[in-house]
Amino acid sequence: MTESIAASGAEIATVSMRRVKFTNTPGENLFALLRERGMTILPNTAGCFTAKDAILTANLAREALETSLIKLEVIGDEETQFPDVEQLLRAAETLVKDGFTVLPYCNDDPITCKKLEDIGCAVVMPLGAPIGSGMGIRNPYNIQIIRDLVQVPLIVDAGVGTASDAAIAMELGCDGVLLNTAVAKAHRPVLMAEAMKKAVEAGRAAFLAGRIPRKLYATASSPQDGIIE
User: Has keyword Transferase (predicted)?
Assistant: First the structure.
């Protein structure tokens, strides 16, 4: 795991507060392990199905880890792991008022993302596809609309399966990608982590450079002057 993190160039690691055991055993404390490597820990509320549970988990994270950062997840369906938008918005509003820096996992719905920004969330994190599916960016047009609609940073959360998916997310104007399964379950995780780093860098550079418009018909790229007829 630590080799993959180093190869990826990531600076932030998100950790589920409900799925990680707190221990003082040397070498087994995940939080200490990450901090030793200079990582910023982003606790998350994975496994919460109500705003109440998510708010409680966020407060436990702030007390245990002494951070106001929280990746907010409120799941509406266990099989698809899609967010419950109503509960998510309710939890986000409460946590922002309580002084948290909220990074919400949400649907790729522009209206939901705009509402989260208006509430005061620090970023919006729409899914590219279901968590762990590796299906890539299923609706790039929505991601583009979200990019145009919100001013806060935009991070694709979930669905990235390989390096090209990460590059596409960045080419669409995202500020980053959040991923786990694509690296953790790759045949060679460290190599995949390195590929993700390069893809993110290339995708961002392409976005800043500006792609050419798509056209139905060919356009000659060579100069027309001096052509012998």
Answer: yes
Q: For residue 102, give the nearest of 110, 113, 111 by alpha carbon.
A: 113
Please write the tens of the pLDDT for every residue from 58-72: 999 999 899 999 999
Per-residue confidence (pLDDT) for residue 24, from 0 to 100: 58
Please, how many CA atoms are within 13 Å of residue 141, restricted to the half-sphere of its CB? Answer: 0
pTM: 0.88
Per-residue model confidence (pLDDT) at position 171: 97
pLDDT of residue 169: 97
State the total domains in the chain: 1
**205: CATH:** 3.20.20.70
Residue 226 within any structural domain of the chain? no
pLDDT of residue 115: 98
3-class SS of residue 25: coil
What residues are labeled active site? 71
- DSSP per residue, 135-204: ---S-HHHHHHHHHH--S-BEEES---SHHHHHHHHHTT-SEEE-SHHHHTSSSHHHHHHHHHHHHHHHH
Q: Is residue 49 part of a domain?
A: yes
Q: Give the pLDDT of residue 19.
A: 61
Range of the domain at 150: 2-209
Q: Cβ distance 123 to 103 under 8 Å?
A: yes
Residues of the chain with pLDDT below 50 are: none
Query: What is the Cα 3 distance to its own chain's centre?
Result: 21
Displacement of CA 72 from its chain's centroid (Å): 12
